Queue: 2 jobs
Job 1
Amino acid sequence: MVANEASARNDYTSIAKLLHWFMAALLIGVWIVGFLLDDMPKGPDKMAMVNLHKAVGSTVIVLVGLRIVWRLFHPVPRLPDSIPPVLQLLARLGQFLLYGLMIGMPVSGWLMSSAFGYPVMMAGIIEMPNPFSAPDPELAQAFAKAHGLMAWILALTVIAHIALALKHHFFAKNDVLLRMLPRLR
């Protein structure tokens, strides 16, 4: 589907939908892995999960960059006029919060690992640069706290995002949810 077809139907483009759902799956998966890491005993299994968490998490920043570039050239569909302006503003602020967290989470994780002196392999392939000249456990702990706090804020924001999309579909009976779903022919 081309962009003008999507805007004529008030849908997101196929690329926007693909990025949305792919990133949703990645973020939920990497959040679950990160949450499970806290209870795992030290050892090779935990290190493998940490490396998976970092590999997937670090690729999120690239995907967020792609989403932002895509949005610059393909504006989001207008919200229905039935939604009051203050709620439309809150919806946009919620989207900015999600984008901020999708950037902040991988950046804080990268900085935390770097400050602890551990490498981060983007997608498990490319080693990201370490911005610190030497390990700094105090700084690493600060980034770890920020990373953990953002993880919980992201979880709550995603839950709210899903709940509000369902509210629009089942209670407000508008197309807000449908226009992000794939169109099956």
Job 2
Amino acid sequence: MKIGIVGLPNVGKSTLFNALTEAGADAANYPFCTIDPNIGVVPVPDTRLDWLTDHYEPEKKTPTVIEFVDIAGLVKGASEGEGLGNKFLSHIREVDAIAQVVRCFQDENITHVDGTIDPGRDIDIINTELMMADLGSLEKRREKTAKQAKSGDRQYLKELEVIDKIIEALERGENIRRLELGEAGLKVVKELKLLSAKPIIYLANIDEAEISEPENELVASVKTHAEQDGARVVTISAKIESDIAELAEEEKEMFLDELGLDSSGLDRVIKAGYELLDLITFLTAGKQECRAWTVRKGSTAPEAAGKIHSDMQKGFIRAEVIKFSDFKEAGSMAAAREAGLLRLEGKDYIMQDGDVCLFRFNV
């Protein structure tokens, strides 16, 4: 999973990226300090994988990962080349979801590109730039499709109809994430990598002093926009996440307890990302390696096997599957098998979050 972190300049975007990834991207109090997108690969915390690793004591432990891309601050007019312009809009096309950092704190020492703190305005600026960039892409595609549709080919006529529908929605300022586009529409969205169609998480960046009572008026404004956009909201303090990133693993839990937090911002962002993209995790375990794998919700057992190796999907025979909770309760695979908790599943089996699997295949 790849998440692009975007936002206006000086909203705490790169500071938050640094904290989440510990990748050390440059953070400074001026616009466009991030010239090239910084990338941080972060292991996804999973207590199930930890337990399996303790149980098997394998040679290797491999968590699934999430990739964060820190994209330079956008400004009004970016779709027309303002600021760093289309160069950075192009980076957003390559991500699976967008995490928009929204400034929800007051600090006279940190300038805001538009002078005042207004989360709703900031969200609208970013979303408008994404929509304007999409309009440009769609208009170019429309010219090509209109020429092809003159032949009377149904495929191109249908595509032209879909493109016009999306263009009309964008011109009205509507969120195309909620449009019923059908198979032809989804194909256009995928091929053009439309920015305003990407799933979005709003990261409401608050002052560290407000972490115990994060529901201020600024955050409420973000949540109102999220409801309209079908987005998730994670309230987070970039400063606190920076502090957490500097702590040893055993100190982090104590620090979170002192703040009255159940989990870190990173954990909450990852959870929101998985929910937003309909992702689940399955696990494989043994003496050689214990590993977590990410697949789309609704994936079949052969599709999951294909995440490990394409040959396993092609030659899939069956899967030996057990729920992690059943495995843990039984205490061992032998005890689980004796209790009848281990199941044999075929090609039609739909994977469930937390399945521990062994795939049988023949190529």
